[in-house]
Specification:
By secondary structure, this protein is α+β, with helices and mostly antiparallel strands. It has helices at 8-15, 30-42, 58-113, 120-125; strands at 136-139, 142-148, 155-161, 167-173.
């Protein structure tokens, strides 16, 4: 590199400080030249992003949406069946509660009268079992209806929705 001469065009670029437009190098001191160069540096635009730098591509977004759709298609039916199972379990529980109330009323009737009741009407007449019209009880969101078979004495307990329209569960138990 010794002995080589730098073309005047390059030499002038390297040796000149960065000055604002219209400033004269001879008039500015060293500190003012540095201060004058600062606005030029901050005014430079940020480096532009290269293609493919940052963000997601359309293919990646579509792949994620497809994967989420598949997961939703697999999981949604399982939750649907869980709600049906919960409704069935609640209806079975209401039927068991109705039978427990019937047995409890029958036992109270026996303790008070020393007579084993064999008819639902006996329990209802003595107010041990408060039955509504149609031999039914309202328990929360359910209506529990009792019916007694004549030859065997078995009791059939049917659980309906609270409006009484939809039969949800049927249970037959030996009684008394």
């Amino acid at each position: 590199m010794r002995g080589e001469t730098v073309p005047p065009r390059l030499a002038s670029r390297r040796s000149r400080p960065c000055l604002p437009v219209g400033a004269n190098e001879n008039v500015l001191s060293r500190d003012s030249r540095q201060a004058a160069a600062l606005p030029l540096i901050s005014a430079l635009p940020a480096t532009p992003k290269r293609f493919g730098q940052g963000g997601f591509t359309l293919i990646e977004l579509i792949a994620v949406i497809i994967i989420l759709g598949i997961l939703a298609a697999v999981v949604a039916p399982r939750f649907g069946s869980l709600t049906e199972q919960a409704r069935d379990a609640a209806a079975q529980t209401a039927a068991a509660e109705g039978y427990a109330r019937l047995k409890g009323a029958s036992q109270l009737y026996y303790v008070d009268t020393s007579i084993q009741s064999t008819q639902l009407s006996d329990l209802a007449a003595a107010r041990y079992l408060s039955l509504e019209a149609g031999n039914s009880l309202t328990m929360g969101a359910y209506k529990v209806a009792f019916s007694q078979g004549e030859p065997s004495g078995d009791v059939t307990i049917q659980v309906y929705s609270s409006d009484g329209g939809t039969l949800l569960h049927t249970m037959t138990q030996a009684w008394p």
